[in-house]
Amino acid sequence: MTSRERIDAALRHEEPDRIPVDLGASESSGIMGIAYNALRDHLGLGSRTQIYDISQVIAKVEDPVLDHIGADALPLFIEPRRWKPWTLQDGSPCEVAEGLNITPRDGGGWEICRDDGAPAAISPAGSYYFDPVNPPLADARSPQDIEDAIEHLESFDWPGYLDEDFDDLGLKARCLHEETDRFIVANLWVHVFAAGQTLRGFENFMMDLAADKALAHHLMSRLVDCYEERVGRYIEAVGPWVDIIQVNDDLGAQDGLQLSQGLYREMVKPYHARLWGMIKELSGRPLLLHSCGSIHDLLPDLIEIGVDAINPVQVTAANMDGALLKREFGDDLTFWGGGCDTQHVLGAGTPEQVKAEVRLRCEQFTPGGGFVFCQVHNIQPDVPPENIMAMYEALDEIQ
Length: 399
What we know:
The chain is of the alpha/beta class. The chain contains 14 helices and 15 strands. The protein has helices at residues 3-11, 33-43, 63-69, 143-148, 150-154, 166-179, 193-200, 202-211, 213-238, 261-283, 299-304, 322-329, 351-365, 385-398; strands at residues 51-53, 58-59, 73-76, 83-87, 93-97, 102-104, 109-113, 119-124, 131-132, 183-189, 244-248, 287-290, 309-311, 334-336, 371-372. Strands 3-10-11-12-13-14-15 form a 7-stranded parallel sheet. It has a 4-stranded antiparallel sheet with strand order 6-7-8-9, with no helix packed on it. β13, α12 (322-329) and β14 (334-336) form a beta-alpha-beta unit. The radius of gyration is 20 Å and the shape is globular.
């Protein structure tokens, strides 16, 4: 089988010739820049480390690394056209988008500023990541306030420093399709629930859902309005060349949902259904949903509105054990992840413990297809390269 055929088979719930593998085909199945530099050095593969997702400081995974681990998937990301040097928190080199306004903070750390000079995200001294600050709609009190700031909805999930356009994406997607046999993951993102948290501020938006439902409805409705034009142009440009489309919305926490099933169905599900239904209708492609945490209780709803696969499959969250998920939802969902616990094992365990974890998760998820192997979410900066390679060695040993 080719890589593309291998993942196609998994999505059809057929067992392929071997377990398909992903590293870095999405911004939640990848590797943080510091860990990537260490892995490249460990493998003797020197090249460029480009950080395409600055909030999580996630690196693009290059072909020599993908070849070395036997990866079957490739990402289609919205990227900058030009890059500039930057230095990661451990002092190792990388590149970031040339248009990214990233500056040192007084007292240490970094901040990313908007065009008006106000910080949009900060990485405090000692932190590896950037957290959003100054939500642009924090003071909105009415639908008109949202309309007056509509540019923040129009640009959400496509900031200006990612300056590729639809023609760029179409050409890149076609080249990936024609020049490789790997499975192409279109990273469209288009958050809805999490976008409300970022645009209004987490506390404000969670209060809106309960106490100012009209404002929350208006925000999500207008956000989907803005996404619809983008989705149409995006699929027209890349649709013939990609194999699955990924959308994002974190709905879970470690111990349960971020909002009740009833509130999800009332407030958020209609917008997911509208947006994701449009994506599937226009593209004819399966839908991969990124959602962290314990989302077990919403999986029937997500299946109902068109989700075909989920990532990262956080197996240590409540009710997310692989055996349970496979038994209850294995006929309807492909589990794109869950292959190795990153919270407790990948970074803190020994190589042998990593291998034992991989064997366990593959035993749970592999029967009957419907499984693409990758670790749970991104590989963190403190993960030794020996543990990373132990994951892939375990896969080789069980196949």
